[in-house]
Amino acid sequence: MPSRDAKDKVGQMIRFTASEADQMLLKAVEQAMKGGEYESFSALCKQALRKFLLDQDASPPPSDPELQNQMATLQRQMARLEGAIEMQRSMSLRQLEQKMVQLEQQVVQQVAQVADRLDNLESRINLQPVELSSAEASPPPTPEPDPLLDRLAPLLEDF
């Protein structure tokens, strides 16, 4: 590759399409430029490229064995916790299912009891008109007059 002098600048062009993603990026670039943080669009692009390309290589994963052991321990603990949570959920689900079965049985029993009561009432109602017709034939018994009331009645009328 030929060497370049400071005077020999290479210019690159960036085109933003009408797509939503490109337009959002263009607006973000315009806002960054308005903020005055960068002296030019070129400085903004260089900073973004440095951050994107160089920062990824600058932070390799930790190789400390103690740190790796701690990470492995934490992963095992997380797996155990997730298993315990799943077990609790399944147990809770079983308990809810059992409770629903019990409630369903109770409802069935209560419905059967109500049906029996209705049958009894219907049978009583079917028998009752026969009893009423026999009761209509005989006049209701008249109460015997109270002798004390008979004596007090004329006094009340005078009063």
Task: Describe the fold and architecture.
With 159 residues, this protein is an all-alpha fold. It has a domain at 16-57. It is built from four helices and no strands. It has helices spanning 20-34, 41-58, 65-137, 147-158.
- Any idea what the shape is? elongated
What class do helices, strands and sheet pairing give?
mainly alpha
End-to-end C-alpha gap = 139 Å
Low-confidence stretches: none
Instruction: Tell me the helix content.
Output: over 70%
Reading the helices and strands in chain order gives: HHHH
- Cα-atom Rg, whole angstroms? 48 Å
Brief digest:
The protein is mostly helical and 159 residues long.
Please outline the helices and strands.
Layout: H1 20-34, H2 41-58, H3 65-137, H4 147-158
Keywords:
single chain, 159 residues, mainly alpha, 4 helices, elongated
